[in-house]
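Title: Comparing notes on inverse folding

I've been comparing how different people in this forum approach sequence design from structure. To keep things fair, I'm posting one structure and asking everyone to reply with a full sequence. Here's the target:
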């Protein structure tokens, strides 16, 4: 069988960078969902990228977040993927790490509760 695919970047979004890049480290995370004939009934998988990005920056703040939504089309299946990259700035004075990205705006307390 002949394998055919097509890839598309649907959107890209970047937040403001609130710190100098030398004061932090780049982190990245992604989440994906494989669906049959592009019948996608929810986008909850995208929150996995947000959660992984926050987990990569404990006790810090993620800024300058670039999010992309991509799809890869195969013969009968589609792979939807959300990728997020950002700058992790450690802030020992802060009680919360704030995530402001293309997925949604959420403030996380130290224990990870919303």
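Reply #1:
Here's my take.
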């Amino acid at each position: 069988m002949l394998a055919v695919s097509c890839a598309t970047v649907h959107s890209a979004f970047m937040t403001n960078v609130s710190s100098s890049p030398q004061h932090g480290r780049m982190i990245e995370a992604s989440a994906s969902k494989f669906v049959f004939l592009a019948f996608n009934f929810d986008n909850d998988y995208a929150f996995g990228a947000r959660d992984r990005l926050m987990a990569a920056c404990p006790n810090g703040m993620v800024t300058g977040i670039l999010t992309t939504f991509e799809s890869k089309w195969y013969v009968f299946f589609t792979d939807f993927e959300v990728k997020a990259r950002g700058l992790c700035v450690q802030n020992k004075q802060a009680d919360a790490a704030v995530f402001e990205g293309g997925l949604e705006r959420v403030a996380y307390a130290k224990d990870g509760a919303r």
